[in-house]
Amino acid sequence: MLKYIYQRRGYPNFTWDSLSILNVLTRVAHRQGEMLGRMRQFGFGVQREAALNSLTEEITGSGEIEGEILNSEQVRSSLAKRLNIKLDRPVSKSYHIDGIVQSVMDAVGNYGAPLTKERLFGWHAALFPTSYSGMRKIRVAAYRTGKMHVVSSKRFDDTIHYEAPPPSEVSAQMKMFLSWLNTGGNENPILKAAIAHLWFVIIHPFDDGNGRLTRTITEMMLARAENMPLRFYSMSAQIQKEKKGYYAALERTTTGTLDITLWLEWFLGCLERAIENSGAVIGKVMEKAAFWQKYAARITNPMQREIINRLMDGFDGKMTSGKAAKILKVSQDTAARALKDLVSRGFLSVQGAGRGTHYVLRVGYIF
User: What gap in Å lies between CA 248 and CA 18, rounded to an integer?
Assistant: First the structure.
């Protein structure tokens, strides 16, 4: 009995209903064009800042899909270094996060370069610098030699959702995949990104890290489609929001026929929503750039610049003197003085009282 898509006669010659996906594909292409046209109106500095925010979301979002919570400040600091953006106060270094950032930046920044087996192995090694996934020793920078199941567990009951091709077939399938990926053809480049995502998931070539590498490849293919080495929206962050639908679409497709229309419709819809949501990220960057263009000469203290930048970037929670002290790595008294000075000069407002006292940007300075 045929259970999985790779067992179908004709695999990997996928088919789809072009009419069914035409409308959403047209909308995605239109939104991409609008977004890129909008970003090209701004200088490279604003573009890099927008890319910094989007790539931070992309990397942390991709980790969350796999249940890994990455330190967003460390991700942001590592990305800023590679984008030549000077942060007022860079955070401590993480070799694990640096490796993840390096692979994503290579995928996006060098989107036009062929994806070879050696390059892919380099990305995999960057994900697992110690050759361990948690407490488990895994094969790194090499294809798997064992079976691969996608399993969910509920109490004492394990459910197998998908079984990848046997290890004896992985090398040949990956050779075919990489050859297709690097060959120009008649496929719409956005569709090619969607197919690449699905195909890599089908093969599941590594012991671990397949999901994150799938999304790294997707970012590279979207960069190729847009002919742009900077990313202004996050597909992974949107997938994380729609994770249930993501896994459902993958399961139905990988256990179905060679007709992948359902998957393409889901991927394109998710991509459209990711681009739509980029408007808020881009808007914040524009507001931030306009603010510093006007007030940079009045706020020269690095601690105060850091406080305002954190608030503009959407600080999670309430900015208290205690939280500011931890962020700035100074005493609470020093942080309180910096905050009160910004209040006295009209940049911040005080809200709450007693232990609930916290600080927010004055509305007039946000816009």
Answer: 22
Residues 8-24 have pLDDT tens digits of 999 999 999 999 999 99
Cβ atoms of residues 21 and 261 within 8 Å: yes
174 vs 217: CA distance, rounded Å: 13
Q: Left, alpha or beta for 165 (phi > 0: left; psi -120 to 50: alpha)?
A: beta
- The pTM for the full model equals 0.85
Domain spanning 5-287, CATH architecture: Orthogonal Bundle (1.10)
> What is d(CA 316, CA 310) in angstroms, rounded to the nearest whole number?
9
CATH classification (class only), 299-366: mainly alpha
Q: Which one is predicted more confidently, 287 or 253?
A: 253
Q: Where are the alpha helices (DSSP H) in 296-331?
A: 302-312, 321-328
E strand intervals along the chain: 132-133, 136-137, 149-154, 157-163, 348-351, 358-361
Judge whether 325 and 310 are in contact, CB under 8 Å.
Answer: no
Q: What is the CA radius of gyration of the chain?
A: 23
* Every domain of the chain and the residues it spans: 5-287, 299-366
First to last CA, the chain: 62
Reduced to 3 states (helix: H, G, I; strand: E, B; else coil), residue 361 is: strand
